[in-house]
Design a protein that fits this description.
This protein is α+β, with helices and mostly antiparallel strands. The protein has 23 helices and 22 strands. The two termini are 33 Å apart.
């Protein structure tokens, strides 16, 4: 019976000698209202707790706060001194022999890397990835399937074509790549790409130029050629090697998923850092298995000093160019690059990971994850990584020392850190990370703010101004701008662009053909810019004492689909005070119901969305800077609310 239970699963079990089959029914019994409410009240909101932060980082935070800055810094320095000694004595001759056995082109790329020291650190940190040393010694394959990596979640994505198929297609893809004469049409872009190419030649990241006959002799007759082009990005031009058009990328597969936390990870790490220290000087952190690290704040720190955190971003210099291409993949690493001086295409061979190769993403992140874990486990650095960016946090009392340790650790292994003025910045209260601004100026008051860089919004304004003045916006440009809007909006609360840009979205999807810009699109673009300027920053509050707001919604359709009804219950629990309970309910009949029925054939889904939207409107004041659980018992409605759209 529906109100008492539900058949979840049935299974037919083959009969015995008599031939009779048995049917097993698995039945679930619904919670009572009180039981359901109790379970809802016990939930932990995803924004709370330490979820998503590795246990290694939690241990590093705990040790800093409980042993104090002086002792921790002494331990870090001693660890650096120990590994420097290992590199200079025990490993020196073996490291030199390893490099001497490399091909000359690979040795030029890997000359500064202390690979055996890297291996020793992995062993000491109990970091298990046996493929790391082979990757650094022999280079990364651009085709085939990347080996398993325990540091990432398993997810197999097989190559869509085989290496044999890639070889058979090479003759034709090479013709296509070489047939395009002339540059991009933008002399400035072409000049920047060629300048970058010349720099790569100087640094032995490229070999060449070669003729097609020379490459045939060097790589075999089935070598693949990929074109290089430039993308203007942030005031500079980024060279991209198109290994998709040449079919190299489809010939690569992976066995794991690269899961990078990004901005959300930085924000949560900062909040967890603040929440580790309580007003009574207790230090508590919950590990992933549910156990707790508990201690007392070191006597050298006040609670305010423990919450006075700063941040910075360490950036690896030309990260992909610090890993070589495997000899077995050189036949897939030929590049056609336009020389604007000679006004012709010239052929080169990439000796390092091409920016544009799918394999490069997996190979580099394999190494970057190892660097992050080693830095945390061996040197107790409080940091994360997103590709080649390593956002780093620490208390003000440790900031300058932590920067030296992080750079010293990477330098000891031979990984080059960017020392450009715009990249190598000290720890600050307000710092840039992954294209956003992280504001820790109110960290002592238990608040972390995330907002967009003003320069990003200004760049969007310039693009919109150009679209409005020319009256032209292609589908490709619309999609590019849409991605920028979505990233910027993701740093704020709410998803306004999804709701207020139907005409612009139509251009992105191709359902609005042409390139002309209707007046409605202009209004949409201008509104989103205004929203990005005026919306308050995303604010994370540490030590939130108010339990999450609970909202339960429901809807029904009865009386031969002539009577609809909707309702919601809100429960606001405040510690030490009686809970506030409010509700609403209403029938949906007559013209209102008829209008909804003309909009959708799935009228119950529409009705289930209605009380959720109404609840947000009615109780929005209570939701400001609050955790909220909204319970919806219709999957269609739930998906509409997640997507903020429906058909």
């Amino acid at each position: 019976k529906g109100e008492f239970g539900k058949i979840i699963r049935t299974e037919v079990i083959s009969g015995d000698e008599s031939g009779a089959d048995a049917v097993v029914f698995e039945v679930g019994v619904y919670h009572s209202c009180d039981e359901f409410l109790a379970k809802a009240a016990a939930l932990t909101h995803p924004f709370d707790g330490t979820s998503g932060i590795p246990d290694d980082t939690l241990h590093a935070i705990f040790k800093l706060l409980t042993v104090g800055p002086v002792a921790l810094q002494a331990e870090r320095v001693e660890t650096l001194r120990y590994y420097q000694l290992m590199a200079d004595t025990v490993l020196k001759q073996r490291e030199e022999a390893l490099h001497a056995a490399m091909t000359p082109s690979r040795e030029k790329v890997m000359a500064e890397k202390r690979i055996l020291l890297f291996q020793m650190m992995c062993e000491h940190a109990e970091y298990d990835d046996p493929e790391l040393v082979a990757l650094l010694v022999s280079g990364a394959k651009l085709t085939g399937e990347a080996p398993d990596c325990a540091a990432f979640p398993a997810r197999r994505a097989a190559p869509s074509i085989t290496e044999a198929q890639l070889m058979r297609s090479a003759k034709w893809t090479r013709r296509i790549a070489l047939a395009k004469k002339g540059g991009s049409g933008d002399p400035a872009t072409d000049a920047a790409v060629w300048e970058a190419t010349c720099e790569e030649l100087r640094r032995s990241w490229l070999s060449g130029p070669f003729t097609e006959a020379e490459l045939t002799e060097l790589l075999g007759s089935l070598f693949v050629v990929s074109r290089r082009f430039g993308i203007p990005q942030g005031g500079k031009v980024r060279p991209v090697d198109d290994l998709t058009a040449s079919m190299v990328n489809p010939a690569f597969g992976s066995s794991f998923k690269v899961d990078l936390g990004g901005v959300d990870e930085i924000a949560v790490m900062a909040r967890v850092f603040l929440e580790a220290v309580y007003d009574d000087r207790a230090v508590k952190l919950c590990l992933s298995d549910g156990s707790w690290l508990t201690g007392v704040l070191h006597s050298s720190l006040t609670v305010e000093q423990a919450r006075d955190i700063l941040g910075r971003t360490l950036d690896l210099e030309s990260a992909y160019k610090q890993i070589s291409v495997a000899d077995s993949s050189r036949w897939t690493s030929a590049l056609a690059i336009h020389n604007p001086v000679l006004d012709c295409n010239q052929l080169f061979v990439a000796e390092v990971l091409p920016f544009g190769a799918t394999a490069a993403v997996f190979a580099f992140n394999r190494v970057a994850r190892a660097l992050r874990v080693l830095g945390t486990r061996l040197f107790l650095l409080i940091w994360g990584n997103y590709f080649d960016d390593f956002p780093q946090l620490d208390i003000a009392a440790m900031a300058s020392d932590s920067q030296k340790v992080a750079e010293g650790f990477l330098g000891l292994l031979g990984w080059q850190v960017s020392d450009k003025p715009g990249k190598r910045k000290p720890f600050e209260k307000v710092f840039e990370a992954l294209g956003v601004v992280v504001d820790l100026s109110r960290s002592v008051a238990n608040e972390v703010l995330i907002r967009n860089k003003e320069s990003r919004i200004v760049a969007m304004e310039l693009q919109v101004a150009d679209i409005v003045s020319t009256g032209v916006c292609s589908q490709a440009r619309a999609n590019s701008l849409r991605g920028v809007f979505q990233f910027a909006e993701g740093q704020l609360y709410g998803r306004v662009a999804a709701l207020t840009m139907p005409v612009f979205k139509s251009r992105c999807l191709g359902s609005l053909p042409g390139t002309n810009v209707p007046i409605e699109m202009v209004a949409e673009l201008q509104f989103v810019l205004r929203f990005l300027w005026e919306a308050i920053p995303r604010t994370l509050i540490a030590h939130e004492v108010r339990p999450p707001l609970l909202i339960f919604t429901d809807a029904a359709l009865e009386g031969n689909d002539l009577i609809g009804s909707v309702g919601a219950v809100m429960i606001d629990r405040v510690l030490g005070q009686p809970a506030v309970r409010q509700f609403f309910g209403s029938e949906v009949v007559g013209p209102a119901l008829s209008r909804l029925q003309t909009v959708s054939t799935k009228i119950i889904t529409v009705l289930e969305v209605l009380p959720a939207v109404a609840a947000i409107k009615f109780w929005c004041d209570r939701m400001l800077h609050r955790r909220v659980f909204l319970f919806v018992d219709n999957d269609g409605a739930r998906h509409c609310l997640i997507n903020l759209s429906s058909k």
